[in-house]
Amino acid sequence: MVRRSGVAAFTALLGVVVITGCATVRDTPAQDLARTRIERCKRFPTVMPQEVRADGSMTVLTYGAGSVSEYAAWRRCMDEALAEQRKAGLVPPDVQPDIVEVKGR
Question: What residues contact 90, with CB distance under 8 A and at least 6 apart?
Answer without folding.
Answer: 33
